[in-house]
Amino acid sequence: MKNCLSKYPVLLRLLFSVLILSPAILFADPPPPLVVRVACVGDSITYGYSLTNRDEDSYPARLGHWLGTGYDVRNFGVSGATLLHKGNLPYIKQKAHADAVAFKPDIVIIMLGTNDSKHRNQGDSKKIPNNWQYKADYVPDYEALIAEFREANPAVKIYVCDPTPCFPGRWGISGATIHDEIIRLIHQVATDTKSTDINLYDPFVEHKDLFPDDIHPNDAGAQMMATVIYTALTGKTP
Fold first, then answer.
1. Domains identified in the chain and CATH numbers
2. Using 50, 70 and 90 to split pLDDT, how confident is the model at 31?
3. Burial level of 136, CB count in 10 A (0-12/13-18/19+)?
């Protein structure tokens, strides 16, 4: 009996501590909500070249607006960038690449390939780079880029996009190469890396009017891109 009584002070102290701490626990500020980090990686089409206001009209900007405050969507597009490491402007050598990886995104949306299609046709200027001569490197270079993001955040979700069509092309960019070769290779990358493919080609085939310079979408085209990507991410329409 004496041993049982001797435990009471300890029990009373524990009960007193719980009573004192309970209000602090109940009324403490809730932890900040988790924000999903989204990196949009690409070339001038992602960057928002030729749009009225790229900070509002680019597809990443519209996507961020529709996804809302629970998402931090950032535009890491670089005009002229290639996926190919041996291309004339490799994405991996740009500051945006380092910034995107350091961001440790939870979701990465990649659209690179338009500038990789560049090669000279008869009568083209010699200033046009012949990027597609390195096409054998396209898949391994793409998979290396994806591996970097997975190293930065092993839980990252990767989306690889079929490039939008060209009508038929300009500045050495080849719509035929994109359609006949690059899209097939992107599908291979998606399979190899267990990434999700987003088809940004077929929805635009009948919409040449949305590409005033044959390559870059206008404001309405960028909004349509954002719609397709938003649906791919959420299963909903904005």
1. 43-234 (3.40.50.1110)
2. low
3. exposed
